[in-house]
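Input sequence (212 aa), recorded before submission:
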Amino acid sequence: MLLTLFALCGTILTTSGTPLRRANTITASSITALDPSTCSCANAPVAGQCRTATEAAPEIAISFVNFAITTFGEQAALLALMLYESGAFKYSTNVYPGVPGQGTRDMQMPEVNSNYAEYLANVCTNCGITAAQVQQAEAEGPTAVLDLVNTDEWGFGSAAWFLATQCDASIRDGLAAGTEAGWDAYLQQCIRTTVNDDRTQLWSAAIALKAW
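Predicted structure, token format:
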């Protein structure tokens, strides 16, 4: 099955599993190397929420530029986080168990999405979200706020924003170094979630690419 999915995505691997293709920015082939299921949205569980690696890669690349995520270690960690939290980009909202207002590709909680929306409205000068829109969405409730920031650009951009604005320098240094200790600290101290084997396996696979 893996070989079939890789063939459908057009990814060519060496016998060691190392992608031949290298680039200065994240590519669809980098993503499918980590999770072959991202090559297709056929039979996606929620209509309209799934995005393929081909659709996701340019949005993620833009987020790295927007929020100055320049080291491979940080970028790899963000990709691993998003793949895990969104079910390989199949979801952009919390469907199970269903938390109103929780979403984006790193599944930010509603209060974080409010902070994100306010940042995009008040700090960014050309992000296409106004303070008036944020105020109206917050009056309507967390689902409306999520809708405001859950476009492809900002939904895939939230993980980079969070790292750039909510994590301290030591967390970023740990991710940049590409150490498991740095990854664990990121999850526990900044994301405030638990470390588990599935998360770490994704991160390990991403780090093992060494470059895009």
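Checked by second reader. Residues 39 and 50 are 11 Å apart (CA to CA).
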